[in-house]
Write a structure and sequence with these properties.
- It contains 13 helices and 17 strands.
- The two termini are 40 Å apart.
- A hairpin with a 4-residue loop joins strand 2 (30-33) and strand 3.
- It has helices spanning 14-25, 47-57, 72-78, 84-93, 110-113, 127-136, 156-163, 202-209, 252-268, 297-313, 331-341, 349-358, 360-368; strands at residues 3-6, 30-33, 38-43, 66-68, 79-80, 98-104, 118-122, 140-141, 169-172, 183-186, 193-196, 213-214, 244-249, 273-277, 287-290, 318-322, 346-348.
- Helix content is 36%, strand content 19%.
- It folds into two domains: 3-219, DHBP synthase; 244-368, 3-Layer(aba) Sandwich (Rossmann fold).
- The longest helix has 17 residues, at 252-268.
- Strands 1, 2, 3, 4, 5, 6, 7, 8, 9, 10, 11 and 12 form a twelve-stranded mixed β-sheet that branches.
- Helix 12 (349-358) packs across helix 13 (360-368).
- The protein binds threonylcarbamoyladenylate and magnesium ion.
Length: 370
């Protein structure tokens, strides 16, 4: 079992940081908090340490890691041929939840970037992360500290559940601020493209560098045949609870009737149902988790992964979730994570309501895949 050091978020104990940095330098694995989610850190310049990250996460070997840095000089050591947009975004949003995909330097081993000629780099806005990178004296490669495919960890207990037996040390600084991962933007193409929406919004990025593309997968729809994934992470199911997750999208009132109807139908067939709600709307279900007010998407983002994990802990078979369609700000990230977590099980509320009236068994078969 990993050692767990509880540290203060603002002023972490230097002794704990230096022990953790020592583990990184020796090629070990340290889970640490960032402002988004907990990361599973390894020396980004040590291929065998990085390979161990892939092994313990069960991560597909072609999905590269994000390199975490603590100073602007570090950016120049891992990247090459930076254009003005990369520098502008780094200056504007770092430290913060924005990851830049740039041309990598020869210093970065193949293992870290899965053999690509680009690297994803970010400077996290968290004192524990920054102090750890500084003390280690090298960039730290870190994916989210969950088993591959599971919801990302926003608490140290999530890391312990998924990886506690397989890693060396965990720095626990309490819940993370943002709750969803960083925005990933590709700056190596003609027009910059958001590959994964996250903690920095499209609007904020466009205010800094002008118009950007949003890759279709950033909306969380599954890629259809023929479209090459630009971010290797795009092609895998992500953030998924163990329970089957159904996302219901449409106009809010219709969504609520449809979610309530589907929960009733499933419970009547003996299925243990969790509902992911908002605005404190009162559903009848075995377990209900509420993301809070729809007018506060930042709070909803903070709660999302934790709520999915809690419903798994409660042993539900199916989670029925109100969809998130407001794309403003962090809304785009919420919509993306919900859709991806469902593995494409996104249903139209109107279709569902009609089906519940005309053919409940049809709906049941569609939802349960039997
Ligand atoms: O907020 C975050 O970004 C967290 C914290 C720990 O920093 N990290 C995180 O890492 O979410 P991970 O590995 O779970 O997600 C990294 C994403 C993946 O979708 C991956 O495919 C993409 O970044 N990525 C990494 N390197 C890339 C590259 N060179 N080109 C395109 N996409 C890349
Ligand atoms: Mg991840």
């Amino acid at each position: 079992m990993a050692r767990v050091y509880r540290v203060d978020k603002e002023a972490p104990d230097p002794a704990a940081i230096s022990r953790a940095a020592e583990v990184i330098r020796m090629g070990g694995l340290v889970a640490f908090p960032t402002e988004t989610v907990y990361g599973l850190g390894a020396d980004a310049l040590n291929p065998s340490a990085v390979e161990r990250v892939f092994r313990v996460k069960g991560r597909p070997p072609d999905n590269p890691l994000i390199i975490h840095i603590a100073s602007f000089e570090d950016l120049y050591s891992v990247a090459e041929e930076l254009d003005w947009r990369a520098e502008k975004l780094a200056k504007r949003f770092w430290p913060g939840p924005l990851t830049l995909v740039v041309k990598r330097s020869a210093r970065v081993p193949d293992a870290t970037v899965a053999g690509l000629d680009t690297a994803a780099v970010r400077m996290p806005r968290h004192n524990v992360a920054l102090r750890l990178i500084e003390a280690a004296g090298r960039p730290i490669a870190a994916p989210s500290a969950n088993k591959s495919g599971k919801p990302s960890p926003t608490l140290a207990t999530h890391v312990i559940q998924d990886l506690g037996d397989e890693i060396d040390l965990i720095l626990d600084a309490g819940p993370t601020d943002i709750g969803v991962e960083s925005t990933v933007i590709d700056l190596t193409s003609e027009k910059p493209a958001i590959l994964r929406p996250g903690g920095v919004s499209r609007e904020e990025i466009e205010a800094a560098i002008g118009e950007v593309e949003v890759h279709p997968s950033a909306l969380g729809l599954l890629l259809h045949g023929g479209e090459a994934p630009r971010s290797p992470g795009m092609k895998y199911r992500h953030y998924a609870p163990t329970a089957r997750l159904i996302v219901v999208e449409g106009e809010l009132e219709v969504v609520r009737s449809a979610v309530a109807g589907l929960a009733d139908l499933l419970m009547s067939r003996g299925i243990r149902v969790g509902v992911l709600s908002s605005d404190g709307y009162r559903y009848r279900a075995n377990v209900v988790r509420d993301l809070g007010s729809r007018s506060n998407p930042l709070e909803a983002a903070r709660q999302l992964f934790k709520s999915l994990r809690e419903m798994d802990d409660e042993g539900v078979d199916v989670i029925v979730a109100e969809g998130w369609q407001e794309e403003k700000g962090i809304g785009l990230a919420l919509k993306n994570r919900l859709r991806k977590a469902s593995g494409g099980a996104v249903l139209s509320a109107e279709w569902l309501l009609r089906g519940l009236k005309t053919s409940p068994s049809g709906v049941y078969m569609e939802v349960m895949g039997t």
